[in-house]
Amino acid sequence: MSLIEPNAPSNTVVEMNQIVLPQHTNALGTAFGGTIMSWVDICAALCAQRHCRRAVVTASMDQLDFVMPVRQGQMVNLRGMVNFVGRTSMEVGVRVEAEDMLTGLRVHAASAYLTFVALDGEGKPCAVRALAPETGLEKQRCEEAQARRQQRLDLAAQRKRIAARHAP
Ligand SMILES: CC(C)(COP(=O)(O)OP(=O)(O)OC[C@H]1O[C@@H](n2cnc3c(N)ncnc32)[C@H](O)[C@@H]1OP(=O)(O)O)[C@@H](O)C(=O)NCCC(=O)NCCS
């Protein structure tokens, strides 16, 4: 395995399944948003590591919309893939689906985009190999991710300016 050659997004796919147990639920019997978020974070981190084979940290998670509640006893399927690679950062998209184990009905429950940064042995951001989208869909995801990256960095800079204004 070469860590210099560009890598196809399909090599970064990670699929994870979880069952929603009582300790994952709120008083309504549906999964805590934070629990789903932590599973999304883990799935996405593994995708990023599959690409760079380095330690990674989560730099940001974009808006996470919960479109359907996930109930106790359901299986949660998470599927992630690296969409775009910068110099040291990688955008990963994760789709979450919930499957009712009695009926087999499967619904889209949530989706999110996360950015990870690869770290060297001293904990500093380090360059990662390029991504080589192959299919039309992978190329489209890559272009869309590039636009999101710009918006994300603009927003981060704006937040930094606001935080500096409110600093004691
Ligand atoms: C993420 C982190 C390493 C970035 O450090 P930094 O000093 O800003 O590093 P740089 O300016 O060199 O940026 C490194 C990369 O991060 C990206 N980045 C920085 N802030 C970002 C943000 N808020 N959202 C998305 N990407 C971001 C930069 O665009 C750059 O990407 P590129 O190399 O592909 O162009 C640093 O902020 C950090 O350690 N944060 C804490 C991470 C953490 O604890 N996560 C939770 C637990 S894993």
Quick take:
The protein has two helices and six strands, in the order βαβββββα. The chain has helices spanning 33-52, 136-165, and strands spanning 14-19, 55-61, 65-66, 75-85, 89-99, 106-119.
Q: Please identify which CATH superfamily we are dealing with.
A: Hotdog Thioesterase
- How much of the sequence lies in strands comes to 25-35%
Distance between the termini: 51 Å
Order of helices and strands: EHEEEEEH
Mean pLDDT: 96
Number of helices: 2
Largest sheet: 6 strands, antiparallel
The ligands found in this model are: coenzyme A
3D structure, described in words:
The chain is α+β, with helices and mostly antiparallel strands and 168 residues long. Helices cover 30% and strands 30% of the residues. It has 2 helices and 6 strands. Strands 1, 2, 3, 4, 5 and 6 form a 6-stranded antiparallel β-sheet that branches. Coenzyme A binds next to strand 2, strand 6 and helix 2.
Core attributes:
single chain, 168 residues, alpha+beta, Thiol Ester Dehydrase, Chain A, six-stranded antiparallel beta sheet, 2 helices, 30% helix, binds coenzyme A
Q: Topology, please?
A:
Elements: E1 14-19, H1 33-52, E2 55-61, E3 65-66, E4 75-85, E5 89-99, E6 106-119, H2 136-165
